[in-house]
Amino acid sequence: MSAHAVVTSAGARALLLSGEPVVGYGPFVMNTPEEIRAAMDDYRNGRMVEA
After folding, report:
1. Contact, 22 vs 33, CB < 8 A?
2. What separation in angstroms does the CA of 27 have from each of 2, 24, 32?
3. 42 by DSSP, 3-state: which?
4. Which pTM was predicted?
5. Where along the chain do its domains lie?
6. How wide is the angle at C-alpha 31 spanned by C-alphas 28 and 33, nearest 5°?
7. Are 23 and 40 in contact (CB under 8 A)?
8. Nearest C-alpha neighbor of 25 from the set 7, 3, 43
9. 1-51 tens-digit pLDDT
10. Rounded distance, CA 13 to CA 41, Å?
11. ∠ CA(17), CA(22), CA(25), 5° rounding?
């Protein structure tokens, strides 16, 4: 896996990752659609812990 952080002179920031599949839905970012569904289920059922 490789990661590259980019910051522009205007202050925009981006993190570029490569090496694994990435799936995003709403605030969730996982590696597979199944992981997204599990995270949504955990969220809906109060199983996510506030950091």
Report:
1. no
2. 23, 7, 14
3. helix
4. 0.59
5. 21-51
6. 70
7. no
8. 43
9. 788 899 999 989 998 878 888 899 999 999 999 999 999 999 999 998 776
10. 30
11. 125
pLDDT at 3: 85
Phi, psi dihedral angles at 40 (to 5 degrees): -65, -40
Pair 28, 39: CB distance under 8 Å? yes
Residue 45 — φ and ψ, nearest 5°?
A: -105, 15
Distance, in Å, from the CA atom of 34 to the CA atom of 9, rounded to the nearest integer, reads 38
Q: Which residue has the tokens 């969220």?
A: 43
Q: Kindly state the DSSP code that residue 49 receives in the 8-state scheme.
A: P
Listed in order, strand segments (DSSP E) in 1-51 are 2-7, 13-18, 23-25, 28-30
